[in-house]
Amino acid sequence: MVSEALDIDNMPRGGPDASWLDRRLQTDRLEYLDRDDSDDRKRRVIRALDRGEKRLGQHDLMAGIVLDELRGVPDPRILELGAGHGGLSRAILALHQSARVTVTDIDATSVADIAAGDLGSHPRATVREMDATEIDSPDRSYDLVVFAQSFHHLPPRPAARVFAEGTRVADKLLIIDLPRLPPWRHIVQSPLLLPLALMFPVVHDGYISALRAYSPSALRTLARYADPAIRVEVRRSAFNLRGRWELAVASR
Ligand SMILES: C[S@@+](CC[C@H](N)C(=O)[O-])C[C@H]1O[C@@H](n2cnc3c(N)ncnc32)[C@H](O)[C@@H]1O
């Protein structure tokens, strides 16, 4: 059994089979988004993410990935975890005329900001605070749960809980996250990014995110650790210059 043999808390972000170098290219340092000491920086990161994703059309790209997973489901019920700014939920609602979306985040300020905007009064949206590791919904309440660009925030044990919880409350859990870069990419880009990370909170968080991204083998191991009955398919999203992600689609 994986759960008996594996030291889950110390599993490398590159997975149990990660190379010596890959194991060194990770960090426990927190992003501003994970810290409680600076609401202002958190808000700046969330706003910068929203602006950047809007400019690149990434909200629509990710919404397309979500809706592809729901083909054949007439009026899908979708739960978005870690919504941050709500851009993905807004794009889903615009692209699908009968989808209902529950837009959530663990951060109370982000949830209040989303609720104060258009999604707060959208007839097919509900805005709520929610922890992805402890989803406050009955079994099978949704057709799909999506957790976009957020999974890497969680250390392995709570990350495995997301697999357990997401596949409990929905038929499908879709994780969309940054791909884990090969070691040479970290080594080449670090000298370029580090000075910018000191100046711009969003680059600071992006740099840490890249070091915390899980590899396909880590994602499969976390799903198996959560419950061997969970089936997971890990793949890259289609090639697109505007954005390309690691996808994990899990179900029971
Ligand atoms: C990098 S932002 C991503 C925001 C948005 N999904 C996007 O793609 O731009 C990560 C988000 O995950 C949220 N988050 C972190 N841990 C979480 C948890 N345990 N449950 C729910 N959301 C969480 C943070 O509050 C933050 O809003």
TrEMBL record:
Domain of life: Bacteria
Gene Ontology BP terms: methylation
Pfam families documented for this protein: Methyltransf_25
Keyword Methyltransferase appears in the UniProt entry: yes
Record Gene3D superfamilies: Vaccinia Virus protein VP39
First and last residue of the signal peptide: none
Listed GO MF terms: methyltransferase activity
Domain Methyltransferase: start-end pairs: 78-169
Keywords from the UniProt entry: Methyltransferase, Transferase
Protein name as it appears in the record: Class I SAM-dependent methyltransferase
Lineage: Bacteria, Bacillati, Actinomycetota, Actinomycetes, Mycobacteriales
